[in-house]
Design goal:
- This is Mitochondrial carrier.
- The chain crosses the membrane at residues 78-97, 109-132.
- Keywords: Membrane, Transmembrane, Transmembrane helix.
- The structure is a single chain.
- By secondary structure, this protein is mainly α.
- The relative contact order is 0.15.
- Helix 1 packs across helix 2 and helix 5 (111-141) runs antiparallel to helix 6.
- The chain contains nine helices and no strands.
- 80% of the residues lie in helices and 0% in strands.
- The protein is globular, with a radius of gyration of 22 Å.
Length: 287
């Protein structure tokens, strides 16, 4: 090895760790900012769905009241517990996905390894946090919580109830469907889009990221309603009774969760990817 090659190798080893730390800093910044962008909309939508299921409050009326209250009392809305819960869920999800991709690319470099690491780590983080978020929303906004009627008002929640195993299992199935339809299936389907539609791989990925997660909610939404019913009505009831109760809320909930998934795993994921690229370059330049 020549002296020049040795010097270049030493310089590469000196700068590579800095580049990795810069990438991880970019991952953190992109994930947290992306979660800030989408959390307000998701908080309002999720509260409306929970109240519609547990208290029978009309969906449109709930959305209108919450949006109006959020505009009139922005401080109470943005610093309230529900929005913080939603932000925690999606910030952790995005940051974990970003960091897993960075680490996998750093130590392996193969696209398959990065994809597997991203899905596995995101699933392990998002699923328990998603269940935690839904339980907190059920406690705060459910029929037994005495929730306030407007966003930002003080909420005196009832003591947390024991979570039935059936509710836990149903929430897990719902989140598995959502994660699979948001992080894995879009990548598989994007390659199937014909070039006659678009020949750009970036455009194909954008199309599938904005559509496939939405369509996955046609399957996930009924499971979501059953899980909420298991939590709200913890007595032994025939499964057919639970299905019958949730059936009347099914169309509006499917529409609402399809709308909800657009910011969560459509726009949110796209914003996260773009911000990740920007911040990784920016932080790497200063590390």
């Amino acid at each position: 090895m020549t002296r020049l090659e040795t010097q270049q190798g030493l310089e590469h080893n000196d700068h590579e760790p800095c580049s990795v730390w810069g990438n991880l800093a970019g991952d953190l910044a992109a994930g947290t900012i992306s979660a800030i962008l989408i959390s307000p909309a998701i908080t309002i939508l999720d509260r409306a769905v929970v109240e519609r299921t547990t208290t029978g409050r009309p969906l449109i009326r709930g959305l209108h009241a919450q949006l109006r209250s959020a505009i009139r009392r922005p401080r109470g809305f943005f610093f309230a517990r529900p929005l913080g819960i939603v932000w925690t869920l999606y910030a952790a999800t995005y940051v974990t996905a970003n960091a897993a991709t960075t680490v996998a690319e750093r130590f392996d470099g193969a696209a398959a390894a990065a994809s597997t690491a991203t899905f596995a780590s995101t699933f392990l983080v998002n699923v328990p946090l998603g269940v935690w978020k839904d339980l907190r929303f059920a406690e705060i906004f459910g029929s037994s919580s005495g929730a306030a009627s407007e966003v930002g008002k003080a909420v005196v929640a009832a003591a947390p109830r024991k979570l039935p195993r059936a509710a836990t299992a149903t929430f897990l199935v719902r989140d598995a469907v959502t994660i699979f339809g948001s992080f894995t299936l879009p990548n598989w389907i994007s390659a199937a889009i014909p070039d006659s539609v678009t020949s750009s791989p970036h455009a194909k990925a954008t199309i599938t990221q904005l559509t496939v997660p939405v369509l996955s909610q046609v399957v996930a939404s009924p499971i979501h309603l059953i899980a909420l019913d298991y939590y709200e009505r913890q007595s032994r009831l025939p499964f057919s009774n639970r299905v019958a109760r949730t059936r009347e809320h099914m169309p509006s909930t499917i529409v609402m969760r399809c709308v909800r998934i657009i910011p969560a795993f459509g726009i949110g994921c796209l914003a996260n990817l773009e911000l990740r690229s920007f911040f990784q370059q920016w932080f790497s330049a200063y590390t």
